[in-house]
Prior knowledge:
Layout lengths: L3 E9 L3 H12 L5 E3 L13 E2 L9 E2 H14 L3 E3 L3 E5 L5 E5 L4 E9 L3 E3 L15 E2 L2 H4 L7 E5 L3 H10 L5 E5 L9 H9 L3 E4 L2 E9 L4 E9 L5 E5 L2 E4 L3 E3 L10 E2 L2 E2 L13 E3 L11 H30 L1
Parallel strand pairs: 1-2, 1-8, 2-5, 8-21, 10-17, 11-12, 11-17, 12-13
Antiparallel strand pairs: 3-4, 6-7, 7-8, 9-18, 14-15, 15-16, 19-20
Helix pairs in contact: 1-2, 1-6, 4-5
Amino acid sequence: MTAIIHTRMLILGSGPAGLSAAIYGARAGLKPMVVQGIQPGGQLTITTDVENYPGFRDVIQGPWLMQEMQAQAEHVGAEMVWDQIVDVDLSQRPFRLTGDGGAVYTADTLVICTGAQAKWLGVEGEQQLSGKGVSACATCDGFFYRGKKVVVIGGGNTAVEEALYLTNHSQDVTLIHRRDSLRAEKILQERLMAHPHIKLLWNKAVKRFVGGGDPEGLVGLDLVDTVTGEESHIATDGAFVAIGHKPSTELFAGKLELDEGYVVVEKGTSKTAVPGVFAAGDVTDKLYRQAVTAAGMGCMAALDVERFLAEVDFEAAKAAE
Length: 321
């Protein structure tokens, strides 16, 4: 017999957004249930040094931070469920979701915090050197490369913005693009071209991320010319892959309004177009993608859920009179 589990507040995802929503929801007495998903703790569990989360003077570890957030959420009454949702029915309330083991979850409200994954090049050395000189977030990790040589890989808005940002820390920034023109907005291109500390390498693709030293870290990139096929090498201390992000919203295609895959929410809130469905964190955020902004949005979602359920309960009580 299929297990049916009901909750007033179901949260999908257990990164900073999901766990912050769980903390606030639990403190409001909503007894939220968190379906942790395929990567409990989210992207921070594969991030080593975290130096920009408020409240910590020293560098902390991403997995430790997520463990502490989860422990706090459980302490105040949130329930963690190890499952992966494979089907969603948002056509009526309570919403109906199915886990990959067959369990069915029904929920009066749903908070989507499934995050977004950085796109990677998929070449040799990339994953082995992730966190050891290879990153997908200049805002997160640029501070560690003060005064060092860095490269950015990509040609869109994200790549250009990351290159410009890195000039706050380095006077030797190189943007590597596989074509001979950028896709970024014109104003960003003009700023990039005018910057004295940024060089461009056109028609170059990364063939290999090269490690060295003890402990091992990134020391350079092997490149191949996309026109001539000629191979070359560039030495660098840090490489930032900036070819975009992919929000984890496949479940909601055709069921919620999406913009380039990101869940669309009402401005200044976490509300989607479906009453009772909310979204927070990187799954809605093309621009900032920071742990602290995700956590703040998780708080917003919980407060929006609380207000929504209070209105539902009030209307139900009036109808019963």
